[in-house]
Amino acid sequence: MSIPVYFATNRNKIESPVPNNFGTDFNVDGALVFGRAVLKSVADESELGNSNLSIDALSPDDFSPTLRQAIVGQGADHLLIYLHGFDYRFRETVMRAGFLSDWYRRGKPSVASTIIAFSWPSLGSLNLDAYRTDYRNAAASAGAFRRFLTRLLPLLQEYRAAKATRRVSLMAHSMGNHFLHAGLTAAIGTAPGQFATASFAGLIDQLFLVASDEDADALSSPGGLRWTPDIAGHVALYYNNQDIPLKTISRPIHGVGRLGVDGPADKPSFRTRNISFINCSAANPELKPRSRQANPPRLDPQWHQYYRLVPEVRNDICGVMLGRDGAGLPNRTYRRTENFYRLDLAK
To answer: Are 38 and 54 in contact (CB under 8 A)?
Structure first.
């Protein structure tokens, strides 16, 4: 089964033996490129060759009419917009997006999705210098995100108008939250080219902030993620107290607690808002050891990729995508005093 991934990017186009590929820097003229990647398989996310992944229908500034028709007229009844995090090359971005489409389709409940990914210029390298560069690049892509919205919002209107039962989710993972924070800061306002929050009304049902590499007070600080409850029907923030990258890399570099470790410190103050906090710290099963290991490995060894590795987290996200009442989702326990849900493993 082939999986189409529709994308936009502000990366530089590169000439190489791999056709229609993009690099790790910004597009020289600041323009966006839109297109489609078609994946034959997502079983091996390292398989980035042309035999598994083809890219076509590139066009500047907007999706081509053919791709718009494919998204609106032929797409599934759930649209997922995906913003990647640190350490992604372009082809890794579309492979991960395709994997997520398949992963949530296999959830309980199953959610079949049309998926759109935005790929900002990450170096795709796992070291501290690359992390700092990626963080700067995510912030410097704020204007690109604003321009992306000028094409995305009319597309969402058209997508939803085609069928009343359709739903739309936006998901940012890890440093993708910083990209979203910077992008919303640039996009929302009253200046020319900016949007009022009313422009989003009825377009985004669920907004997922997962393993957020943003300051812990970002939901209360001016601009950025503070706008998320105003542009979506509901915001779901998934976090993990033991998140290794956020605690050992992000926190020391920024000198500020990360939103994806414990959510905001003032969670009770959001009790009347359209936002839920889901603590995934208990949802990370041990793999069955091959021998009598004292500390068998975990399904999510970094405690950071639970949204794509742990079935209980996936199923919880699928329930939220479909608009089900969070209080009734399985494996959740509500901590009323602190205003968060603890997500446990299935019994």
So the answer is: yes
Cα 33 from Cα 120, distance rounded (Å): 11
- Name the residue among 69, 17, 25 with its Cα closest to residue 48: 17
DSSP codes of every residue in 272-300: TSSEEEEE-TT--PBPPPSS--SSPPBSS
Quick one: tokens of 248? 């050992």
Q: Quick one: 130 exposed, middle or buried, by C-beta within 10 A (0-12, 13-18, 19+)? A: middle
Identify which of 41, 34, 96 has the alpha carbon closest to the alpha carbon of residue 61: 34
How far apart CA 308 and CA 339 sit, in angstroms, is 25
167-211: per-residue pLDDT in tens?
999 999 999 999 999 999 999 999 999 999 999 999 999 999 999
Distance CA 14, CA 25 (A): 10
Q: Are 341 and 328 in contact (CB under 8 A)?
A: no
The DSSP symbol for 188 reads B
